[in-house]
Amino acid sequence: MKPITSTQKPPISNAGFTLTEILVVALIFSLIVIIFSSTFLSSSWLQKKAFNIQQVVENASYVLESMAKEIRVSKISGPDTNCPSSPAGSLTIDHPVNGRITYSLSGGAVHRSVKVQDSSVDSIISSDNVEFTRLQFCILGTAIGDGKQPRVIIQASITSKSAIQPSRIDIQTAVSQRFLTDQY
Predict the structure, then answer these.
(1) Phi/psi of residue 39, nearest 5 degrees
(2) Order of strands across the sheet with 168-176?
(3) Using omega within 30 degrees of 0 as the cis cutoff, is the peptide bond preceding 84 cis?
(4) Is the pTM value of this prediction over 0.85?
(5) Could you tell me if residue 1 is inside a domain?
(6) Is the residue at 160 inside a domain?
(7) Where are the beta strands (DSSP E) in 87-148?
(8) Nearest CA-CA partner of 70 in 99, 43, 33, 47
């Protein structure tokens, strides 16, 4: 190598990146970040949706199973309803231990009212996290002498109260009492 004199300029080094190369790398990096962040947001929305569906299903299962346990051992009060055109908005049963129980929908919550002597004790059996938008009862087989098994078809629509990714389900179940009307 020759020594550099004061009148000579040092040689230009080509070891760095050009502006175009830096811009291309920045663009690729930005695209990768956008793809990963959108994937993360999508999975976050799906997780919230799944959580809301889980809340709705768990609460619907709890409410329907609570009603079914008492209906099975009770005598269904009231006449048959004309279903599906005009189902009943409430269900009254005569439980052998708890007395007269009425299930109804009020303000988006399922109410269980138990008549004790001259007063009624009302309790809400649904969660605050969900709203029941429909609760109907089709009562069948309660007429004496019809030879049909008394049963109730419960229809419900439940919605989560979450503002983000609300979930809604419609559910129906049939519950029969253990004794025929003629033998009860």
Answers:
(1) -65, -40
(2) 130-140, 151-160, 168-176
(3) yes
(4) no
(5) no
(6) yes
(7) 90-95, 99-106, 109-116, 119-124, 130-140
(8) 99
In a domain, 7, yes or no: no
Residue 77 and residue 83: Cα distance in Å, rounded? 16
Domain contains 135: yes
Range of the domain at 161: 27-183
Contact 184, 74 (CB under 8 A): no
Query: 27 to each of 17, 36, 37, 39, 41, how far by Cα in Å?
Result: 15, 14, 15, 18, 21
- pLDDT 10s digits, 99-158: 899 999 999 999 999 987 778 899 999 999 899 999 999 988 877 777 788 889 999 999
Number of domain units in the chain: 1
Query: Which helix H or strand E contains 66, and what residues bound it?
Result: helix 19-73
User: Shortest CA distance to 86 belongs to which of 150, 155, 145, 151?
Assistant: 155
Do 158 and 173 meet the contact criterion of CB atoms below 8 Å apart? no
